[in-house]
Each structure stands twice: as structure tokens, then as C-alpha cells.
Design brief:
Largest sheet: 4 strands, mixed
Distance between the termini: 44 Å
CATH topology of the largest domain: Aldehyde Oxidoreductase, domain 4
Structural class: alpha/beta
Number of helices: 13
Order of helices and strands: EEEHHHHHHEEHEEEHEHEEHEHEEEHEHE
Strand content: 15-25%
CATH architecture of the largest domain: 2-Layer Sandwich
Length: 487
């Protein structure tokens, strides 16, 4: 929102501080201003799910000079866009500053098909999502619905308002921690050319899990307009909303806070692996409680076998938060990174391999080549079969590159000895802000006659491998975050 024309983060601004002042929300923007920004964001792929876009739009529309990339990056420090990797948002700002109109004639239906392939769930493309009208989970809840918020490990506090429900649940604001990250899975014994250990990583989708349901009705899906990187695929909120609505005989909104998402939502599982020069080795993943089994586990093993047939996969029980193989390229990306990296020789101090192109072919058939350049930039080639819409494919490729760079360099969540998550704020996850994101040059390959397939997951794995090579192949990720330890 704007307060007396200056941008402020509404969710942390007490009402008492705006008493008697002029408050402008997104809906208060002049229609021509909102339309020009929405058009630019759509043109450059600067809005995917659209959940964060209205706040970003208000922030950037307040800038005197949105053509200045330094000022744009500074303005974006108060925001998180997990989808786009920031670059396309910068490009949209430059377009607005230059007064460039969006080109006509784009096939929005084809763009939506590409977005569905990349995100794994239906996604609208156009001005409506960019203006916050993507149809998010809680948007259609009826007035007067009860509100349920988590209370304890699995229960809910239900009340007429969100404030009352939070008070009944004894809601305590989440904090960051100074506790070090840990790498809980032991590296398998053996003589290895390379070893790698990772920690828990938060998917960090921006729209928290939510649903609502009327008694006897169908609950709203928690995926409103985007895939949440697989993190909501088995979210319990829809079933919880149906159950609570039937119990109370009234519509119920189930709303998770950021802390609830971090405590209850799945993480990328930590792994530890060793690989020999010939590509054989062992890949271990840490799981809390019962071992993973069933079709999801069998599917994950099959995908690993496609990209790294010489790696044996093991499960190791470790105390920690829930994990999921639904998250972006989980397990097979780690395997592909190991295979790609070992092909370029042994690790060691001073063995950075800047400029080395790394190719990954994903189980989907998508292909990517990534290279970290001497000037700090990143070059990516992506082949997703029929591009359908190059703007969307490019945007997803840049977003995947952003996520991969953070995974290797800075991302992780700290847990205590019992496995409880300690890092409960977005700023504590180690996600790269806009000013830390290098430029990404994307080349979209036009594969004649090949059907469209997901391409951004291959980019994710290829960029991770290229960044690891550029770092000199240190044995633990994240490589550039202080305060890590082995358990």
C-alpha cells in the first residue's frame, strides 16, 4: 500500500500508524497506471502465479525512475517473487519507464499451456493474474464464514474472525534463528571422486496454504493459479476445510500462516552422496519417520535411473520436518548434478570451472545447457520441445535458475536436535534477493516437430551443476552461507 504516497508493507504496518493519513491500496491506483504495469509484466513474463505482483506493482509504481535497475532492486528488497527470478520484473520496469506498448497478437491459450507444463497445474496468463485476480484459494470464500487456523500439531482453532481464531490458538509470531544449518545425512563410506551433502530447503511459495468449504460441498483447491513447485500437491487444507465445515454446519476458511507452512509443509529432503569417475555410487536421502514407499517412491527411483543409472538410492531416517518427492525435480536433480559434475574431473581448492557448459536431459525429455561466465552472468539454453510461448518458457527458465543458484549458494532451514524447524520467516531461508541475482541470458530452442515438454526442471538441474562447478565442487551446500555444521 501507499501511505501519503510512499510505499509501505501493509502486513507489518499497525493501523495506529496510518490514522489520519491517506492510504492507497492496489485498487486505488489510476486504471491507466495499473494497466500499463500489468501489460509490461505480462509482456516480459514478470508475473507467473501473480500472488506477489500487486505489491510489487505498487512498490515500483511509486519509483520516480523505474528505469534505474539499482533503484528497482533496492525497492524489491521488501518483496519475494519465487517464480520469476526477478530479471523479468526488472525488464517490465524498464519497459514502463520507456513507455513501450506491449506487442499485439500473442496466443494467450498457448502461453497458458506452456505455463501448465512448467508449473504442473493450470495457470492463467494475462493481465488478470498480474493484477492479483488469478483466483486464489481464499478469494471465493463467502462472507460470514468461520475461520480455522492451526492450533498445536494437527488441530485447529475455529472462530468467527481470523483475529479471534489466532487469539484462541495462542498464535506467536515466527522468528529467524542464529542456529547453524546442519547436514544430517552421513556421506556413504567409500572411495569417491565427488561427495555432496545438502540440507533441508523450503520451497518458499508465496501464497500460504488455504482452502474453504461449505457443509457437504467441494473444498476450494489450495492451488489457485500456479504449482507452488509441488509443495501443495498433498496439502491437507482442502480435506480439513471439508471436515470442519461439516462439523460446524457452516462454511469454514482454513488459513495457514507463513509459520504454519514452514512447520507443517514439506521440505526438499537432505541428501548425501558419493560418486565414482564412472558414474557409479550411492545417493542417500534423509526422511523423518517411516520410509517413503508406494508409487511416489517408485517413480522417483525410475527418474533417478533415467539420469544416473549407476547410482544406488538409499533412505536414512533422520529427525526433521516432513519431506516430499513432489518438489521441483526432487532426487533426480541431485543425481543429475552429480553425474554432470563428475564428468568434469576431481574437486579441490582452486578448481573452479567457470565457463564450462553443463547439459542435463530431464526425465520429461526437456533439455538444458547452463554456463556460469567470468563476468558473473549465466547463460542458459532450454529445449522444451514446441515452445508454445517463448515468453513463458523463458520466464520459467529464469525462475528455475534463480532457485538453483539459491539452492547451491545460500538456501536452507535450520532445525533443532528433535527435528523442529527453527527458521520461520521468509528472510531466513536464504533466498537470493533481486540485487544478488546475476543476469541470465536465455536461448529458447525451437525443436521442430517435437511435442511440448517441461523444460525449466532441466534448467534447474543444469544451473545447479554449473554453479557447483564454478564454486570448485565443495562437498556441502549451501556453499556461501555462514553457520553450517555436520550432525
Amino acid at each position: 500500500m501507499w501511505v501519503d504516497g510512499a510505499p509501505r508493507v501493509s502486513c507489518v504496518t499497525p493501523v495506529r500508524r496510518v490514522a489520519g493519513r491517506e492510504v492507497t491500496t492496489f485498487e486505488g491506483l489510476p486504471p491507466t497506471v495499473a494497466a500499463s504495469w500489468a501489460s509490461a509484466l505480462v509482456e516480459h513474463g514478470g508475473s507467473q502465479c501473480g500472488f506477489c505482483t500487486p505489491g510489487i506493482l505498487l512498490r515500483l509504481a511509486a519509483l520516480a525512475d523505474p528505469s534505474d535497475p539499482v533503484r528497482v532492486d533496492q525497492a524489491l528488497l521488501a518483496h519475494l517473487c519465487r517464480c520469476t527470478g526477478w530479471q523479468t520484473v526488472r525488464e517490465a520496469a524498464a519497459s514502463v519507464a520507456a513507455g513501450r506498448p506491449a506487442p499485439a497478437g500473442r496466443d494467450v491459450a498457448a502461453a497458458a499451456r506452456r505455463a501448465r507444463l512448467e508449473g504442473g497445474t493450470p495457470q492463467r496468463v494475462g493481465s488478470a493474474p498480474a493484477l492479483g485476480a488469478g483466483g486464489f484459494a481464499d478469494d471465493g470464500a463467502p462472507a460470514g464464514a468461520l475461520v480455522a487456523v492451526p492450533d498445536g500439531d494437527q488441530g485447529y482453532a475455529v472462530a468467527p474472525t481470523r483475529a479471534a481464531a489466532r487469539a484462541a490458538a495462542g498464535k506467536v509470531q515466527g522468528r529467524s534463528t542464529t542456529a547453524p544449518l546442519v547436514h544430517p545425512v552421513p556421506v556413504p563410506e567409500g572411495e569417491w571422486a565427488l561427495t555432496l551433502a545438502t540440507t533441508w530447503v523450503e520451497p518458499a511459495y508465496v501464497e500460504p496454504d488455504a482452502s474453504w468449504c461449505a457443509p457437504g460441498g467441494a473444498p476450494a483447491a489450495p492451488l489457485g493459479n500456479g504449482g507452488a513447485f509441488g509443495g501443495k500437491r498433498h496439502s491437507p487444507v482442502a480435506a480439513d476445510a471439508r471436515r470442519l465445515a461439516d462439523e460446524h454446519g457452516r462454511p469454514v476458511r482454513v488459513l495457514w500462516s507463513r509459520e504454519d507452512v514452514v512447520r507443517r509443509g514439506p521440505k526438499r529432503p537432505p541428501v548425501a552422496a558419493g560418486i565414482r569417475p564412472d558414474g557409479t555410487g550411492v545417493l542417500r536421502l534423509g526422511v523423518p519417520g517411516r520410509p517413503l514407499a508406494g508409487p511416489a517412491w517408485e517413480g522417483a527411483l525410475a527418474r533417478v535411473a533415467q539420469v544416473a543409472p549407476g547410482l544406488a538410492v538409499e533412505q536414512v531416517e533422520v529427525p526433521g520436518p516432513p519431506v516430499s518427492l513432489d518438489l521441483r525435480a526432487a532426487l533426480w536433480a541431485e543425481a543429475a548434478v552429480l553425474v554432470a559434475a563428475v564428468a568434469h574431473g576431481p574437486a579441490g581448492p582452486g578448481r573452479s570451472r567457470l565457463g564450462v557448459p553443463v547439459e542435463v536431459v530431464a526425465p520429461s525429455g526437456g533439455r538444458a545447457v547452463a554456463r556460469c561466465d567470468d563476468d558473473g552472468g549465466l547463460a542458459v539454453e532450454v529445449d522444451g520441445g514446441d515452445p508454445l510461448d517463448e515468453v513463458v518458457l523463458r520466464s520459467y527458465a529464469i525462475g528455475a535458475a534463480h532457485q538453483a543458484l539459491g539452492w547451491v549458494r545460500s538456501e536452507g532451514v535450520a532445525v533443532d536436535a528433535d527435528g523442529a524447524v527453527l527458521d520461520l520467516t521468509v528472510r531466513s531461508f536464504g533466498i537470493l534477493p533481486a540485487r544478488a541475482m546475476p543476469p541470465v541470458a536465455v536461448t529458447v530452442v525451437r525443436s521442430g516437430g517435437r511435442p511440448a515438454v517441461n523444460g525449466s526442471d532441466a534448467v534447474f538441474a543444469a544451473v545447479a551443476a554449473a554453479r557447483w562447478l564454478a564454486e570448485g565442487l565443495p562437498p556441502a551446500w549451501p556453499v556461501a552461507r555462514a553457520g553450517t555444521s555436520r550432525r
